[in-house]
């Protein structure tokens, strides 16, 4: 991953705060990496910084210069000549501006090296004091890792032109090749509801990662991103996050049902094992097919939600045990497929039931287990009380049933109230006939 630690914004901030640009850049870098860690995003294998690669960037420019594709300007800068290059316009057809009158030869020419200005950091070079242009930094650093060709280059849709266009031109000129990158991935803007502008600190329309995680989990935000095609603009709002949270909870509840079914704690109707196995295989194939089609995560998750819906329906509870045919192995296979797929996509499923393995969470688990057991005992007693507690049994069974209901109704209501109270703090209790389970639902 390339980090630009020297640009106009950083320089302006450094001059305003009267601090070295390296200090400003390092502060932003640390904040960025901390935020990525909070979102459970894998750390990059390599981090390249512009200030660490000045010699390589200068050498990269010199190679292009040797091909007679550059020219100097009076301010000590070096520009790339798009007309001499002859292949400019990969993402957007090039149309020469015949009316252009400026210090450059052509309006689309771009700086490879910028001559030094007052109050700006600089480095010595064959062209005098200065600093790298924005586009050349990325080409030189990426080429230093991957060489003359690599598979995937990504960035926001706003970088497609002119930044990535210029990267292609200078890199293919440098290597005298026709394909520097095999695949380009350009993501759409993230924007607030009612604001079509992308989130930007300069526009002050951003939601910080720490602020986001005060209300939602990293997995909920990840799900929001995956439920929208990466090329599309993505609206961030409370409504969108609420819907996303509901979708994720459907999956988590399904996995919880699968778990307690496999353990023998859930008694449900007979499951069509052949149909379930077919749905698992179909979903596995279609999920990969959709990802292979330009990472179409939207359709991939549509298919997964169909599998989840089928599982939730199949695992519907019944009140009494019966001689139903069980298929724990197939249900476990479905659960494993869903879990492994979500884990590969970066979801932290191990952290869904508990946010910590420390003492506080262990105490919560113990307390919840005791509470659920107590509630289950009371509930079962109320639903099926021993006959001897009534000193005067009635011959009329309907009247006796009515009397029992009247006697124990307050306790059953209290059990329901306890369940609803816990639900308000995102703890869900599920009554499963002769057993009960609990789950922490993410908001």
UniProtKB/TrEMBL annotation:
Q: Which reaction does it catalyse?
A: 2 L-cysteine = S-sulfanyl-L-cysteine + L-alanine; S-sulfanyl-L-cysteine + L-cysteine = S-disulfanyl-L-cysteine + L-alanine; S-sulfanyl-L-cysteine + tRNA(Cys) + ATP = (S)-sulfanyl-L-cysteinyl-tRNA(Cys) + AMP + diphosphate; S-disulfanyl-L-cysteine + tRNA(Cys) + ATP = (S)-disulfanyl-L-cysteinyl-tRNA(Cys) + AMP + diphosphate
Q: Could you give a GO molecular-function term held by this entry?
A: cysteine-tRNA ligase activity
Which cofactors is this protein said to need? Zn(2+)
**One Pfam family hit:** tRNA-synt_1e
Annotated InterPro entries: Cys-tRNA-ligase, Cys-tRNA/MSH_ligase, Rossmann-like_a/b/a_fold, tRNA-synt_1_cat_dom, tRNAsynth_Ia_anticodon-bd
Asked if Nucleotidyltransferase is a keyword of the record, the answer is no
Top-level EC class as recorded in UniProt: ligase
Entry keyword Aminoacyl-tRNA synthetase: yes
Gene Ontology terms: cellular component: cytoplasm
Query: Where do transmembrane segments lie in this chain?
Result: none
Give start and end of each tRNA synthetases class I catalytic domain: 3-244
Could you list this entry's UniProt keywords, alphabetically sorted: Aminoacyl-tRNA synthetase, ATP-binding, Ligase, Metal-binding, Nucleotide-binding, Protein biosynthesis, Zinc
Q: Could you tell me the Gene Ontology terms of the biological process aspect for this record?
A: cysteinyl-tRNA aminoacylation
EC id: 6.1.1.16
Protein family according to the UniProt entry = Belongs to the class-I aminoacyl-tRNA synthetase family.
User: Record's NCBIfam families?
Assistant: cysS
What exactly does this protein do?
A: In addition to its role as an aminoacyl-tRNA synthetase, has also cysteine persulfide synthase activity. Produces reactive persulfide species such as cysteine persulfide (CysSSH) from substrate cysteine and mediate direct incorporation of CysSSH into proteins during translations, resulting in protein persulfides and polysulfides. CysSSHs behave as potent antioxidants and cellular protectants.
Q: What is the recorded name of this protein?
A: cysteine--tRNA ligase
């Amino acid at each position: 991953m390339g980090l630009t630690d020297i640009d106009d914004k950083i320089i302006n901030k450094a001059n305003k705060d009267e601090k070295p640009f390296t200090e400003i850049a390092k502060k932003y870098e640390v904040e960025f990496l901390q935020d990525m860690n909070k979102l459970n995003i894998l750390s990059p294998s390599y981090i390249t910084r512009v200030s660490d690669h000045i010699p390589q960037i200068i050498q990269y420019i010199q190679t292009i210069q040797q091909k007679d594709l550059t020219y100097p300007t009076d301010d000590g800068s070096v520009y790339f000549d798009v007309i001499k290059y002859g292949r400019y316009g990969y993402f957007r057809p090039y149309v020469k501006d015949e009316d252009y009158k400026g210090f450059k030869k052509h309006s689309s020419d771009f700086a490879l090296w910028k001559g030094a200005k007052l109050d700006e950091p600089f480095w010595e070079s064959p062209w005098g004091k200065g600093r790298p242009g924005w586009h050349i930094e990325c080409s030189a650093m990426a080429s230093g890792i991957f060489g003359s060709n690599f598979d995937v280059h990504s960035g926001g849709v706003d970088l497609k032109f002119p930044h990535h266009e210029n990267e292609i031109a200078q890199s293919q000129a440098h290597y005298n090749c026709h394909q520097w990158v095999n695949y380009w991935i350009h993501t759409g803007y993230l924007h607030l509801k009612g604001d079509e502008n992308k989130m930007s600190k300069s526009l002050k329309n951003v939601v910080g990662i720490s602020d986001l995680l005060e209300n939602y989990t990293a997995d909920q935000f990840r799900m929001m991103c995956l439920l929208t095609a990466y090329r599309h603009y993505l609206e961030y709002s409370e409504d969108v996050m609420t819907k996303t949270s509901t979708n994720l909870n459907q999956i988590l509840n399904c996995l919880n049902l699968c778990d307690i079914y496999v353990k023998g704690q859930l008694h449900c109707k007979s499951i069509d094992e052949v149909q379930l196995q077919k749905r698992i295989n179909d979903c596995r194939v279609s999920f990969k097919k959709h990802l292979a089609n330009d990472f179409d995560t939207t359709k991939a998750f549509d298919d997964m939600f169909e599998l989840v819906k089928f599982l939730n329906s199949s695992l519907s509870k019944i009140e009494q045990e019966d001689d139903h045919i069980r298929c724990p192995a197939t249900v476990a296979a479905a659960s494993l497929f869903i879990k492994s797929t979500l884990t590969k996509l970066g979801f932290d499923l191990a952290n869904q039931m508990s946010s910590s393995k420390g003492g506080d969470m262990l105490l919560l688990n113990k307390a919840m287990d005791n509470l659920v057991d107590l509630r289950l005992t009371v509930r079962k007693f109320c639903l099926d009380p021993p006959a001897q507690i009534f000193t005067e049994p009635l011959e009329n069974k309907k009247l006796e049933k009515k009397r029992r209901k009247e006697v124990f109704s307050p306790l059953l209501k209290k059990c329901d109230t306890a369940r609803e109270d816990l639900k308000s703090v995102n703890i869900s209790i599920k009554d499963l006939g002769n057993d009960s389970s609990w789950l922490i639902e993410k908001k």
